[in-house]
Amino acid sequence: EDCWHKNYSGAPTDGSAWIRDGVSEQRVVRGGSWANRYDRARSSYRSLDSSFSHFNSNGFRIALSNLWSSTPIIQAGNSSPSIPMPVGNVSPTPKQTSSKQSTSSVSLDPYECITAQVDDRGNVTTYSVKPPGGKYVEQGLNLPSGALPLEMVVIPACTFTMGSPEYEAERGSREGPQRQVRVKAFLMGRYEVTQAQYEGVMGTNPAYFKGFNRPVDSVSWDDAQEFICRLNAMTRKRYRLPTEAEWEYGARSRTTTPFSYGATITPEVANYDRNYPYGNAPKGEYRGQTLENLSH
Q1: The pLDDT of residue 294
Q2: What is the pTM for the complete model shown?
């Protein structure tokens, strides 16, 4: 959602989008892709693009506004041990009274996911977790059989350290200075918006790499805003793009390592140009395209 600024000097610390004094035609881009090296998959990496650019390496993820009037603040690093998980699969949540939670707008269901830890040599350990926050499944879309539903997972309120330390490999000045940021509770898309979901709202599929459960690609920031506008009209909810602070908090999953999985990444946990390993990790397969999202 944020406009581009060259670093975090003067940035808000309440988790809101930083629009003021930025370049409105240039928007923050977060996360790596099949076409990028490992460094763009780091939790703190940030770059920019024009709001109207279309590339087959660009997709987007959506957020849903805060639904709770009061949520505990979790101090990162001062609570239970972190559980590295994919973006959005983050724990502590508002108090639960049953296996199915309700808010004024949505009903939350428990779910299970597979995640991993990666050591500094690229050894991967996978395991299953049941994030206590739950997920919301949007019922307002007409999707084809076999298409993944639009799932939104709880991201709890938290104060965390945003940005990268100066000693982190491959970091740039645009990732600092580090600062404490407080993020309110919200929901984040479990996956990037898929082609089936995009077509169900927009009536068209612009993706270069076709597959209805693959992320929609070749979309601009302007296209994402139009998708969200139409989605909100269909569902009568307040979907939006995540702010930059929300995105990094979700990506970090309460970790302080370069990646939420640990010190490095491998082909087993991320889709990137594996000809360029990070740290001591080995080289791997370069797939050269997007992949289908998996139901787990």
Answers
A1: 65
A2: 0.86
